[in-house]
Amino acid sequence: MRRYWFSIALLLLSVSGIGTYYFVGILNHLPKFQIETVQGNAKEGAAVVLSGSYYGDMRSEFLEVSVKGSKYYKEKGNFRTDILQANSWFYENLEMQQLLKDHKTFMRGKDNVGGFYRDDEIVIYADLSTTTRNTNAPHAKLQLSFLDEESEKVVRFKSIALGYSDDIYAIEDVQRVENEAHILFRKYSNQKTYELVYVFDLKTGKQLRQVDVSSQANERKGQDVQLTKIQNKSLNNANDTIFFVGSTGDGEDRKVFYYSYSYLTGILTEREEPLWEGRFVVYGLQNELIYYAEIDPHVVTLSVYNTETNERKRSYATVTAEQLGVDEIKAAIIESDRAYLYLIDHDDTSGVAVLNLEDGKLLFKGFAAPVSGEELTEEEQQENLHLNNINIVQSLEN
Amino acid sequence: MNRYLKLVHMEIHRFRWILIAMMGITAIFQFSGLIWTLKKAMAQFEEQKIQGSDTRKYFDSVPDTLTFEWAMSNTQMWFILPVLLCIAVLSLYVFFIWYRDWMGRHTFIYRLLMLPTARHNLFLAKITALLLFVLSIVAFQLVMLPVQELVLKLVVPAELRSESHIVDVININQALVELIPRQFEQFFYIYGLGTIAVLMLFTAILLERSYQRMGILYGILYLAGCVLVVAAPFLYFGLDSSIIPLYPMEIYVLVLLLFFVVAGVSVWLGSRLLAKKITV
Which of A317, B33, B221, B237 has a CA 20 to 30 Å removed from the CA of A185? Predict the structure, then answer.
C-alpha cells in the first residue's frame, strides 16, 4: 500500500479540495433577501419580483427578490438553466402555461405568443416562416394550425405566401369571427409600416380577403398616420374590437388619435374620446375596459374607461405615498385584476403594494429586507441592496 | 479492477515529477506575486500617511482597508500565468501520454500490450490519470487560496484589512473564474466536456497509431464527426423550437445524450483499436 501513497494523496487532494469548496466554501457567500409582508396576504404579493443589484466590495451581483426569497443570477446560471430558460418569456405567460398544460402535443414547436387565439371551441395558431433565398418569391410564409378543443383534431395549412419578396411581416393579433380566422399583420415595405388584416377560411385555409387598416386612417386624415396597436392583456382571448393609437407629424406638430377596429365589419373608426388621460400613465386593456393609472411620486390615481359605452370613471381610487407610509411611488403595473405599485421607503428601501383594481383597496404591502441570521448586519446588507425594477411573474401554481 | 488501478497508479507515477513541478511553479509564482503586491501596498500606505490624502494619485492609491479580493485583482497575471502553463503542459501530455509509450529503442508499449489484462484498461487508466492530474491541480489551487489569505493576514496588520469571501476572490481572477465555476453542476459540465474531448483525442491518436498515415486522416475525420454530432443541435436549430419541435428540457436531454454517445463511441472504438488493430 505504501508504494501507492502518491496516487492516494492525489485522489484525496482532489476529492477533499473540490468537495470542501463546493459543499462548505461557497456557503454564506451572498446575503439572502425576501419581500417581507407588512400588511395583507403574502399570496397577493407572490407574483411580484423586484430586481436590481447587490453591491459587493469590488463587484455587484444582479439579483431578484420575491416573497419566496432572493435569487442571484450568477449563482443559478449553468449550462442546463441556460437551455431551460431560453424563451422564458413564452413559458412565463400565464395563458401559454394553460395551453401547454391542456395541449402539450399541439404546442410543440409553437413559441410565438402573439400568434395564439383561444375560445371554448378552437385554438388557432399562426406563425411566419421566412426564407432568405434571393428570389422574387415572397419571403414571408404563413403557417396556420387549428385545434378543435373537444376532439383534439388538428388541421394545418402550411406555406401561405404573403406580399412581395421585400416585405417583412410580423403577426400582431389572431381572432376568430365565426368560420373565419382574422390575422392582423404589421408589414414593413418601402420604409413604411402598414397594419393589415388577412382573413382566412377556417375549413380550407384559403385566403378570403385582405383589409388595409392603415389606408383607412390615411384616407380620412389625408396624410400618413402611424398606427400602433394597443396590446390587450389577454393575448389570445376573443375580442371583436382592437384599438390603435395613431400619430401624425413629429415633435411639436405631433398629433395623437385613438382608433378602434372591428373584425366583424372590417372598419376602422376614430374615437371621439381618448382611451386614457393624463401624463405618466400606465394602462391595462382588459377586453372592453381600459384601466389606467396616473403616477406621481406622491400619489397614484386609478381610472377606468369602458370602450363600448364610453363611460369613464375618473380617479375612482386614489392611493397616496403617505397612506402607504413611504417616500415615493416609483412605478406601477396593471396586470390581471391587480395594480402593483413599486414603492421607495425613507432609507431607499424598495417595496411593493398590491391594490385591487376594482376598488383600489390595499391587498398587500411588503418591503425587501435581509433574511436574519446572516454574517453582515441587516443595516449593512440593506445598504448594499439596490433594487430598481419591478416585474410580475405569474404562474398557474400561484 | 485491481489491474486497472495499478495501471492508473503507473500513469500517475510516470507523471509525478512534472505534476509536482507544476504545483511548485504555481505556488512560487502566486505567493511571490501576492507578497510583492502586499508589500508594495503597505509601502504606499506609509507614503500616503506621510504625504497626506491630498497627494493620493488615482492610479497608485490603495483602498483604506485591504482585502484578499483586492490583492487578487492586483495580481491577476501572477495567478493566470502558472494556470496557463499547467493547461499547456496537460494539453501536450494528452498526446504524450500515448506517444511516449512508442518512444525509445525498447518501446514501452510492447510491455503494456503484453500485460495479462484487458487492453481497454490501458485506455481507461490513461484517461483516469489525466482527469486526476487536472482535478488535483484545481484542488491544489483551491487549497492554496486559504493559505494565501493567511499570508495576507501575516503581512497586513488587522486594522488595515477586511474579510473577503473565497467566491469573490475566485470571481475577480479572469482565469480562476473560468476554471472554478460557482456551481458544482457547472463544474461537472465543464470538466465532463473536457473529459469527452480528451476521449475523442485518445481515439484519434489510436486511429493514427493503427493506420499510420491514413490514420491521421481517419483521426481528423473522427474528431470532425464527433464535433458535428455534439454541435449539430446548436448549429442547426439553436434553441429555436419552431425549427425542430422540442421543448427546452428535451433539448437538454438530447444534448446530454449526444455527449454520452460520443463518449461511449470513443471508449468503444479506442478499446477496439487497442485490442484488434494497434501495431507496434
Answer: B237
User: Distance between CA A385 and CA A395 in Å, rounded?
Assistant: 26
And the C-alpha cell for A48? 411580484
Task: Return the residue of B nearest to A128 by Cα.
Answer: B242
B53 vs A177 pLDDT, higher one: A177
Nearest neighbour of B252 by CB, restricted to A23, A59, A80: A80
Model pLDDT for residues A238-254, shown as the tens digit of each residue: 778 889 999 988 877 88
**Alpha-carbon distance A89 to nearest alpha carbon in chain B (angstroms):** 13
A345-366 burial code (b ≥16 CB/10 A, e <16): beeebbbbbbbebeebebbbbb
- At A94, is the pLDDT very low, low, confident or very high (cuts 50, 70, 90)? confident
Where does the pLDDT of residue A90 fall: very low under 50, low under 70, confident under 90, or very high at 90 and above?
confident
Q: How far apart are CA B111 and CA B113, in angstroms?
A: 6
Listed by start position, the domains of chain A span 36-79+287-398, 94-234+238-275
**Per-residue pLDDT tens for A297-355?**
999 999 999 988 889 999 999 999 999 999 999 999 998 889 999 999 988 899 999 99
Query: What does chain B come to in residues?
Result: 280
Nearest-angstrom CA–CA distance, B55 and B61: 10
Distance CA A97, CA A396 (A): 7
At B98, the amino acid letter reads: W
What are the Cα distances from residue A185, in Å, to A212, A337, A393? 10, 29, 28
Give the C-alpha separation, A239 to A263, whole Å.
8
**pTM for this prediction:** 0.85
Amino acid (1-letter code) at residue A363: L
Q: Which three three-digit cell numbers place residue B226?
A: 464527433
pLDDT for position B141: 97
Put simply, whether A153 touches B (Cβ < 8 Å) is: no
Grid coordinates representing A171? Answer: 403577426
Which residues lie below 8 Å from residue A283, measured CB to CB, with a gap of 6+? A230, A275, A276, A290, A291, A292, A293, A334
Do A318 and A360 meet the contact criterion of CB atoms below 8 Å apart?
A: yes
Of B162, B167, B252, the CB nearest to A29: B167
C-beta neighbour count of A317 within 10 angstroms? 19
Distance from CA of B141 to the nearest CA of A (A): 9
Amino acid at A397: E
Minimal C-alpha gap between B136 and chain A (Å): 5
Show residues of chain A in contact with B252, CB under 8 Å.
80, 83-84
Query: Which of B182, B185, B234 is the best mutation test for A, with the most CBs of A within 10 A?
Result: B182
Contacts of A58 in chain B (CB under 8 A): 69-70, 73, 168, 172
Q: Cβ separation of B186 and A20 shorter than 8 Å?
A: no
